[in-house]
Design a protein that fits this description.
single chain, five-stranded antiparallel beta sheet, Chorismate synthase, AroC fold, about 25% strand
Length: about 375
Amino acid sequence: MSSVTGNKLKISIFGESHGEGMGVAIDGLPSGFAIDLDYINQQIKRRTPGKSILSSPRKEEDEYKILSGFFQGKTTGTPLAAIIYNKDKRSSDYGELKNLLRPGHSDYTGYIKYSSYNDYRGAGHFSGRLTAPLLFAGAVAMQFLESKEIYIGSHIKSIYNINDDDAENIETEVLKNLREMNFPVISSEKGKLMTDVITEHKNAGNSLGGIVETFIINVPAGYGEPFFDSVESKISHMIFSIPAVKGIEFGAGFKITELTGKEANDEFMAAGDKIITATNNNGGILGGISNGMPITFKTAIKPTPSIHCEQNTVDISSMENSVIKIEGRHDPCIVPRVVPVIEGAAALVILDLILERDGERWS
């Protein structure tokens, strides 16, 4: 199982949804950097369940314990490791589902790949619970980046068939404000429509997905390692590690195919001692390398597969067709809780790219 990623900054995660806990080890952090634990707490709180009717009622505060790599408030340069214990497990919810393959889940593929030894409770290691330690690592990386004035923020671009307004003003305070919102949108009116449609489908026992649009500002030009470690390659690799992600596009994305070359090209212009572009259809990346403009990408999140509607499936113990109706505690829409995870995952990539080019000294 590949649970390690990164080049200069290596991340390793472990644990299961209904196991004793989950954790992360971060190898390659520069020493002597002051970490604000309140900042980490704030980011993790954005992801925790049980905060509203739009999320799972599972009560997990996701309190972490740092085991190594942190002394007197600063990084030591050795691996920074943390663990988060599962405190509100209800494994009995999955007893009757042991042999029934849940549509949209990893039950079948995990069963085949690991010869039936995988932990099926709450999807085990495939669960979105594993994004909690990933976000811990991401919150650490975000602090490193913000010390260089690099900021990351997102808004919910769409839920189902309802679209938020475009973000026309991508500045630090705008991104910070979005991170303060439980349901980060540009238009409060569109946000109300989104929450209403989520509630409607939740009451019907169903679920919804959506799109998250993310912005990374103030990344200098020149970062990225083409061909195989380009900015797009590394961000895509990391983002697709997040459960429920089914697509990603940068800048104008697939809509760039509807433009001519003249329309799609981002024309250069001088701005003091910097070179900027008049548009940003390429999402701040050219040739796999950052060009100094905001790095922008959209992430497609599928509807939560655990729904209360009856679905057709197979009883793997008898190899007979069957019917399943999933009970338990599940999000009717996982999109709001995925937002901080996407930001943290992107931060890990950008920090890794910086360490690749500039080395491990940090100032």
